[in-house]
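I am still getting used to backbone structure tokens and would like to learn alongside you. Label the sequence line and the structure token line clearly, so we can match residues to local backbone shapes. Would you write everything just below, so we can both look at the same thing?
***
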Amino acid sequence: MFEKILIANRGEIACRVIRTARRMGIKTVAVYSDADRNALHVEMADEAVHIGAAPSAQSYLLVDRIVEACKKTGAQAVHPGYGFLSEKREFQEALAAAGIAFIGPDAHAIQAMGDKIESKKLAKEAGVSTVPGYLGVIADDEEAVTIARDIGYPVMIKASAGGGGKGMRVAWNDEEAREGFRSATNEARSSFADDRVFVEKYIQQPRHIEIQLLADGQGTCLYLHERECSIQRRHQKVIEEAPSPFLDAATRKAMGEQAVALANAVQYKSAGTVEFIVDAERNFYFLEMNTRLQVEHPVTELITGLDLVELMIRVAAGEKLTIRQEDVQLNGWAVEARVYAEDPFRNFLPSTGRLTHYRPPAAHPHVRVDTGVFEGGEISMYYDPMIAKLCTWGSTRDAAIAGMREALDQYYIRGVSHNIPFLASLMANQRFVDGRLTTNFIAEEYPTGFHASDLPPEDPAVLIAVAAVIHRSLNDRDIQISGKMPGNKAKVRDDWVVVLDGTQHPVHLHPADGSPQRIGYTVDIDGKHHTVWSDWQIGEPLFRGTVNGTPVCVQIDRVGIGYRLHHSGSQAVVKVLTPKAAQLDALMPVKAPPDMSKFLLSPMPGLLVSLAVTEGQEVKAGEVLAVVEAMKMENILRAAQDGTVAKIHAAPGSSLAVDQKIVEFA
């Protein structure tokens, strides 16, 4: 067994590999860029080596720097995680030449499966079902249009070396095929240094279901059942679960056996994943093979009890697998939600900055949090904005979903925007709960984007009661102040008015008998009694307790004289006032925000790649105005209405902040 391994990655996956290596008694080496000097994975590892500047092309993607770090520290093996160099044949070959083990497949398997065009040819030869399409290299956008017409719209234009949703476009007509080819090519060149794309038939109403494989290169190749990954946004997975609520035993077995056949065709070794598109009739078609550990591997670990990272390390060290296919069991259900630093209310734009407060849910056998950040750490503009992978396990799918809703309520993040409200909405969506999923789920359920109205409906009495109890507790503490004049004993009132979303709710509180360690009140709201119990302490950001016997977890932020409460993904600003103050509050004018409609504002921090207009130019609604690049994704900004450009506020090449002015209209 290895004595020391290097993790050629960063963030949560580096931390996750370090945890398993530590349990196995293996020392670890982290590598880091300028931006990650104080990152969690650097702190967790036994050693750390600086490898370059913040951009990944100048650090994490430099093969020679990684090899040099291995030699410097005496690392005998490298775990690549996912992304970066994990599927680069040249990396595996460079490590082999230096006598360093690669914790992953051999170079020939990486090359064969890493190219989407060649992998589809190999899959067909191995007897694996494939999607109709054109696998040749496409010269230009006009050839892309010709091919798309031959296949028949709609088609999918995909980067051959792509991954993570980059370099992927759906085209429904000639114009979209031209634009999709150009955009996919540019993204592929920027992200993978390989601008080849191919075209295949776009299967409507599809599910994305993948098979986890594990092979030792010594004759044993197992499929560890499937993961349902259909909940995607812009081809990026958002929710994953294992097993799939759609597959039956026969289809599961057939998909697993075809995945194993493909792996055997390339003498595969280590963990890998074969992805399939599955239609409404359970017909399945090969999509691609990922020759690495998947982001969503924890859900497979939760239902099988296997540690995939440990098994990858053991296989790379030459050990033979001791488990057989019949030993791989399905135990319960697991769901994973990807928590991202992005603003779901602003079209999921990335959010960067410092995590001023960060408290994930407490880990236990039913809740797992894989993260690479910490309170006070920073979400960098240079890398993927993932904060964590939140996973829950239950004996049934309903139990796993219920656990996820509870865990999301407990996830306290401040300093950056995050997608927890959106994740909470997904968990409460009846179509999701019913398991009626396709890769079009988000587009169909949120056709105009995500809005506050999409959040799960909750009884406002819960927030009203909790706000009243919080305020009463603070007042109880205030009257305990020392140094008061004799004979001036203060008394806390029992009658208040809770102002929630502009509506006033008179409440009356009765202290309930209980232990000194617990807060207990009966809160009368609109003639109904609500009993609240909690062990909340003043200053804690989470109010945990029960309302009418139902467990609740409400996040609390003090905002001026009121509170901002977060529950089930939604948030509300609440004020608790005396009856007289409530009368006066109702007379206060509402301050209107400034009108910024005449400006084109940058929707995210990023680089202004190009500007398509000049001062004095007339533009039409829908016309391209500018292109902003963020997180290696090109974002096209279009005119919302007809107008004339009055002034240009930013030049191509400028680094933009959120809401920075780019163009001003007359």
The two ends are 70 Å apart (CA to CA). The mean pLDDT is 92.
